[in-house]
Every structure is written in C-alpha cells, then in structure tokens.
Amino acid sequence: MLPRRDFLKQSASVSALARDAETVVVDPKPLFEISPYLYMQFMEPLGVADSSVEAAWDYDADDWRKDFVDTVRDLSPGVIRYGGLFSRYYKWREGVGPVAKRPWMRNYVWGGKETNRVGTHEFVDLCRRTGAEPLYCVNFLSDGETRYRTTREGDRTGDAIEAADWVSFANDVKLWQIGNETSYGTTAFSKDEAITRTIEFARAMKQRDRSIRLIGWGDRGSDGNLWARDMAERAGEHLDFVAIHMMGQRPQRADTVLKGLLYQKNPEQAWQELIELSNNVERRVSELEDALSGPCSKMDLAITEGHLSLTPGNANPILAEWLSAVYHARSLNIYQRHGARVKIATAADFQGSRWTVNAVMLQVPRGRTYLMPVGSIMRLFKRHNGDHGVAVKSAPSGLDIAASRAGSTIYLHVANLQYRGAVSATFTVDGMKILGAKAYAIAPDDVRQYVSQDQPDVFRPVETAIPAHPACSWRFPAGSVTAIELRCQ
Known about the structure:
The chain has 489 residues and is α/β, with parallel strands linked by helices. The protein has two domains: 19-32 and 389-488, Golgi alpha-mannosidase II (Immunoglobulin-like), CATH 2.60.40; 35-384, TIM Barrel (Alpha-Beta Barrel), CATH 3.20.20.80. It is 26% helix and 26% strand. The chain contains ten helices and 24 strands. The strands form five sheets. The chain has a nine-stranded mixed beta sheet with strand order 22-21-24-19-18-17-1-20-23, covered by helices on one side.
C-alpha cells in the first residue's frame, strides 16, 4: 500500500493528466472478425544472400535451434509461409524421405546451394511446435519463367500434378499459394496465362483436398495495372484469397535521407519520411479493396510478403533502430483497420543472419536469437488483441490507433507518430464502464536505440497498471508503441 502522502501525490498527477488529455472514444460494436493470420511470417531459403533457413538449423542436434524455436514461439506468428522466388525452382520431393538421400540443390536467384535438410516434414514440425499454420507456395510452372526448363540441373519447373501430389503428401497443410510474384517483370506469365494456369492448378489441388484454401496472385503487371479484379472474376470460384506484396517502397523526397547512412545526420526527417511511406500502405490496401468491390467482394486479401525496402537492399541499418518503428506500427494498424478484407499480412521477412528486413535475427554459428523492432511490434500487437475489430470514433492528433475487442475487453494498438512530444489521452468506451486497464509500452528514451545480439531484449514492452479513477488516462511518450487493454463491463 502506498503511504498517504505518495497516494495523494499520485492521485494529483493522474487528475492533472486527465484534465490536460484529449479523449480516445471507442465504439465497441463488433465490425468484423480479426483473422489469426494478420501477423504471419515469411520463410525463404536465401542461399549466400542470407543464411536464413540453414542458419536456423542445428546440425549437431539435427533439429531446429532451440533458441530459434523459443523465440518463434514467443513471437507466436499465426502462420508461416514457405516459398518466395525460391518456389520457382523448388522440387518438393527433394526435401522428403531419408535425409542422407536428399540431393543438394542450386539456389538460382540467391546464389549458392541448399542442402534440403529442411523439407516438408521439418517445416511443418516447426509450425506445429510454435503454434503457426503452415502455408506453402507451389512451383507454379516457375511462374512462367522459361529459363528454369533447361537448367544445367534439368527441368526445374513444376506442373499442376506435382502441386496436387504435394497436397496429398502434406495432407495436414491447408493453406497454399499458387506461385509467387507472377506479374512482376517481363519473363513470367502474362495475366491471361496466369489466370488460365491458376484455374488448372486450383482444380487439380482441390481435387485432392476440398478443404484447402488457395491464394491467387493479384498485384500489378508490367503495364502498371492490378491483376486482382480479373483474377477474382475469372478464377474466384476456385480461390479464397487474392495476394499482393507490400514492398518496393521508394522515398519521394529529392533530399531523402532514407538511403544508406544519411538518416543518421537527420533522424527527425527520416522519421517523417517513414510516416510518408506508410501512407503508401494505406493507399495500396484501399486500391485493392476498390478493385475487388462489387461481384468480387467476397474475396479476402492477403499480403503474403511485405517489408520496408530501403537502400542498401535488404540491409539498411535503420531497421535495427527504433526509428523504423513508426513505419512498422502504422502499417500493422492499417492492416488491422482493414481487417474486414485483409486476412493475411506481414511486415517483415521471417528470419536470417544478415538482412535487416527480418523479424528474427540469428547470431551464427551459434548464439542468441532476437527480434528486430518490427518483430517486437508484431509480438506486442499479436499478444494483446481481440477477435473482432471495433471503431475509434475520435482520438488526439498524433496517435495512430487500431482497436479490437474480445468479450468485454477492449484492445488498442497505439503508435505515437510524434518524433518529439508525448501525447496524453483518456479513454472512454460508448455504453460501457472501464473497470481497470493495463499498458504494455515499448518506449525507449531515444528513438535511435537499437537492438543487437549484445542487447537482445532492449525492446521488450513494460507492463503498467492504469487506474480507472478519477479517469482512465495514459501518457504516450514520443515515438512509443503501446498496447492498451481496457477491462470493461
């Protein structure tokens, strides 16, 4: 119990905060179900570009690294996707059966070779041990890239029968994506070819298992137009989702500091530019929703890859600093606010030892596994979230909020978009009484704070109880990311 003098001092402080704060008003009416797949991860063997999958495997124990499994279980992704460009030349049969008989394979895009030590069984085992649903990308005739028909190692394309056989083999895998980035570049399928082949693959795969859920491709082609509407109209009866990838962000300012180390000279400008880039996420999601309106309105959306792409490619050091958090938190809030349609989403690649676009970093050959800032935010939001989206009717400027509820508990994901200056807020929920609250805040004193193997827990959230009386209020420090839980009746 607090001494009376301290209690009075604390009460006065809370009262002053309530007087000065604006109000976050929540309408608790459930609007849509929140998908458990909003905080997915994406795994791809990356050869010599980033040791990725190989770095996560402990060859001495002949198992996944224990520190890696523990970190992923704590991160708790709803789904883990396996594939990417790698799927264009991946032959799933090479990754099953006795380990000693599995052939090595050349990684044509990312360089080097892959051992195939991690195959279907091992990947699904990782998912089961960490509570994630597995999602595979099938070899979709190499997305139309003809060069994979005649490699030195033979024909690396995969047809519809090969994909269907994989469905039969992996009979407990229910999420599948047909191809990857099929519209990008000029060497892959045309839109009409892709739609025709998608129908062919979907029919063959669902003939083996009617319960699987399929993802088709809907992003822009080389002409700049989205494929989503045509894909949904012509192949929609066979598909459950239409996918795009949310990356390739390009700073718009002529004097941008989001290149290399320039941000270190002007971190405040970098912060503002990152907010500007997050606006593109909102525009792209809204554009996709518009494309799938009307007769296509039943199609769900999937962001099956997405990370902040800055120069140098995939390795900008800003992504290890809290400075990048404003982009990640706002992007994740956008996906959840659009959760009536967006059912699968990610904000990072999954794991690796070099790329900074990863959610999980692996010290090699052995050592610590830790979360990058984007991973810490994904863990925070996934852990403190409801099962239905609700609306925020009003909020102080400077705060970006996504709201949800589970039963009588309201959850707020709050990013303070201000580089300088805290924002104080009181909370009200229409038609409900707040009985108590908690804040789980990541609020480093310096937005230049960074995570590394030497300080792996620097962005672990701090839990604080919030009194409900005389008013339920919280002060959001500059640049902070916070999950608020409001216990109501």
